[in-house]
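Case study 2.
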Amino acid sequence: MDDRDARGERPVGSPAAGVVHSLLERHETLATVESLTGGLLSASIVEIAGVSGTYRGGLVVYATELKAQLAGVPEDLLAERGPVDPDVAVALAEGGRRRCGADWGLATTGVAGPEPQDGKPVGLVYVAVAGPGDTQVRQLDLDGGRAHIRSAAVIEALRLLADRLHAATEREADAGPTDAADRAGVGRR
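Prediction:
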């Protein structure tokens, strides 16, 4: 699963590298909020050279009450549905974006196992991204052991963000060069 080269660095083609480079090109920032991945997502991001120009930071909110206290997930949502829920994933992404002052928030929540949690099966994972103008969540039904589920959740979260960045870039290209230049601050004094 590890894609490091002989120097121990991730290659430019890794999912994290692609996201970091896209964010740098767009002059946008990222924050992460993690539950089941417990820091793996942020670790994969900060391994990329140049990431300090885009990564604001992240929260690891493994305990349910910390999802509310640190990431701002509504307590009534957590009480009603539990931590493994698509709306909780969205609230995590939005909370991370807001609390870290980032353009994009990326979140993970789910059940890595080995046992089900609150009636939710092992391998049920939600990844969410909140960005300028839109929020999206994906449900994943992953197989395998705990380590595989956590690693796959990281990859899928990065893929979701890459998809949203690509869509945003396409929307801007369709809007024309003036709008894209304005967004990037080109020509401002």
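The helical segments are 15-26, 40-46, 64-69, 75-81, 86-100, 146-175, 177-184.
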